[in-house]
């Protein structure tokens, strides 16, 4: 049974200071004896998440709510296993699928068919499972013979349709989504929306980070509100948004 639990979860990572990252400063320092260089190089630690606690259980559709830099995307990447907690613990049970960047892993010089294999492997699908899904993916994209051509020959809309079809072909116990997935031209959007909603409906646990409140309120029943890396509210989706807008309004005032 799908299950996720965080206890005292925290993420802290070092970031190079501006002077440490500046090649220009290093060159100036060496050629002028340090007279023109900026401040001494060093590291700055960023506390991206701090003391986060929650449990996600079977059937839950959870929205991560907060302004940019609040910790939403960081948490998604922890849930996906991209980042590892530096504090606390995270328990996960079930297969995870992370839909963050539909075009990630696509090779412009490879054919559409070859990209289905490569992108599918990136998403964690076994080779045999990918091959079972190829015909359905190709049919959905409506690319026809273009599927055997390099995707550098595709229009932007054609490439987006292929990337979307591959990304939404996954089956997972825990589905993670960061913002929307592009699906190409407007004529394709209704078909794409239906496919995405079907994927969400058949996934036991869904966690979404998005600024699209209308979409979130249709898809999710629970909201976690983040501010400066801290979980400040966890409850039903409408109350979560009311709390978020109250916090944002108070900050602006």
What is the overall shape?
globular
**What's the CATH architecture name of one domain?**
3-Layer(aba) Sandwich
**End-to-end Cα distance:** 45 Å
In CATH, what is the class of one domain? Alpha Beta
β-strand number: 9
Overview of this protein structure:
The protein has 253 residues and is α/β, with parallel strands linked by helices. 39% of the residues lie in helices and 26% in strands. It has a domain at 3-95 and 211-252: Rossmann fold, CATH 3.40.50.300. It has a six-stranded mixed sheet, sandwiched between helices. Strands 2-1-4 form a three-stranded antiparallel sheet. The protein is globular, with a radius of gyration of 21 Å. The relative contact order is 0.17.
Give a topology summary.
Elements (H helix, E strand, L loop, with lengths): L2 E14 L1 H4 L1 H9 L11 E14 L4 E5 L6 H8 L7 E7 L2 E4 L12 H11 L4 H15 L14 H12 L6 E5 L7 H16 L3 E5 L3 H7 L2 E6 L2 E7 H16 L1
Parallel strand pairs: 3-7, 3-8, 5-6, 6-7
Antiparallel strand pairs: 1-2, 1-4, 8-9
